[in-house]
Amino acid sequence: MTTIRENYEKILEIASKSAEKSGRKLDEIIILGASKTQPVEKLMEAYKAGLRYFGENRVQEGIEKIEKLKDFSDINWHLIGGLQTNKAKYAVKYFELIHSLDRESLADELDKRAKKINKIQEVLIEVNIGEEDTKYGVHPDKLEKLFEYTLEKENLKILGLMCIPPYSENKEDSRQYFAKLRELKEKLESKFKTNLPHLSMGMSNDFDIAIEEGATIVRIGTLLFGERNY
Ligand SMILES: *Cc1c(COP(=O)(O)O)cnc(C)c1O
């Protein structure tokens, strides 16, 4: 068994090499601990090792951890799981960046809730990059429409795109999907004359490939915290 600190240092080392391959530096990449189902003690261990970004999947579970760790005000909390419209109110109240905007009705609700508390809510649009039936995310063909729709929302700010590619044993299989997400981002930037700073892509098994293909946020669970209990 390795410690969370050892895991984190290993991840930084790999990320640093991959960043170099894509002409960037480690400090241009956000390592986000995907902490679903993990107890706050483990999040604390990662914090002590230097991690400052945590991504939760469920609003309720996330809020409980945010409340418990509220003294650590330099933690950045992201919501990375699919979001039900009826939870939008709480998502906006607690999370700095929401990675999973994937439909117009959710944009409406997030915008409305953000307006009420005078917040500009930062979001990523999640793209169903493998066009799988089972996944969250907007279909690539519908991305431009959702992007344009969301741009009109006064209290939402789009920072980029997110994806979860189809599962594969071979991490090289993910590369084409990461490249495709980057191309979609670049197309939006040029069409809408805007700058999108973030690509959230890459998990434990393929984050090095994702960074090579331009990821700015990698979401790492198992490799950092160990296996989840479910
Ligand atoms: C669980 C999860 C991750 C991390 O997965 P690992 O394979 O454990 O690194 C990343 N992104 C999302 C959206 C997740 O739900």
Can you tag this structure with a few keywords?
230 residues, 17% strand, 8-stranded parallel sheet, alpha/beta, single chain, binds pyridoxal-5'-phosphate, 41% helix, 8 strands
Structure characterization notes:
- The structure is a single chain.
- The chain has 230 residues and is α/β, with parallel strands linked by helices.
- The chain has one domain: Alanine racemase (TIM Barrel, Alpha-Beta Barrel).
- The chain has nine helices and eight strands.
- The protein has helices at residues 4-21, 40-49, 59-68, 88-94, 104-116, 143-151, 175-191, 207-212, 222-225, and strands at residues 30-34, 53-56, 76-79, 97-101, 121-127, 156-163, 198-200, 217-220.
- Strands 7-6-5-4-3-2-1-8 form an eight-stranded parallel β-sheet.
- The longest helix has 18 residues, at 4-21.
- Pyridoxal-5'-phosphate (PLP) binds next to strand 8 and helix 9.
